[in-house]
Amino acid sequence: MAAPTMEERKACWGARDEFWQCMDNHGDDASKCEKLRLSFESLCPQQWVKYFDKRRDFLKYKKKLETEGYHPPEAAGKS
User: Fold this and answer.
1) How far apart are the C-alpha atoms of 18 and 5, rounded to whole Å?
2) pLDDT digits (tens, 9 = 90+) for 3-59
3) Which positions ≥6 away from 53 have C-beta within 8 Å?
4) Cystine design at 40: which of 19, 66, 72, 79 (Cβ 3.0–4.6 Å)?
5) DSSP state, 44?
6) What's the pLDDT score for residue 3?
7) Cα dihedral sign, 35-45-50-16
8) How far is residue 73's CA from residue 56's CA, in Å, rounded to a whole number?
9) Is the CB of residue 33 less than 8 Å from the CB of residue 26?
10) Cα–Cα nearest to 19, from 34, 9, 2
11) Which is more confident, 79 or 15?
């Protein structure tokens, strides 16, 4: 499989950014962003979609840690 061209990469990143913006605007309600998700999946290689999905989850988790701090579970280390 050949690497995506610059135009294909830009189209993929644009579709990803539009989908993520929709998700942010609708509180991560995927049903409201279904068309953008399909566009994102059709314009990006499958491995990239997986990577970007994991990256979004990580960035949301990181932001939550930065704003709320880390709070270990109550039962951690107890048996």
Assistant:
1) 20
2) 889 999 999 999 999 999 999 999 888 899 999 999 999 999 999 999 999 999 999
3) none
4) 19
5) S
6) 84
7) negative
8) 24
9) yes
10) 34
11) 15
- Cβ atoms of 39 and 19 closer than 8 Å: yes
Residue entry with tokens 């990006």: 44
> Which of 75, 61, 62, 20 minimizes the C-alpha distance to 44?
20
**Distance of alpha carbon 32 from its chain centroid, rounded?**
15
Residues in the chain: 79
Distance of CA 4 to the CA centre of its chain: 20
Q: Are 34 and 66 in contact (CB under 8 A)?
A: no
With beta carbons less than 8 A apart as the criterion, state whether 19 and 36 touch: yes
* Residue 71 backbone phi and psi in degrees, to 5: -125, 105
Tokens 């979004």 appear where? 56
Which pTM was predicted? 0.79
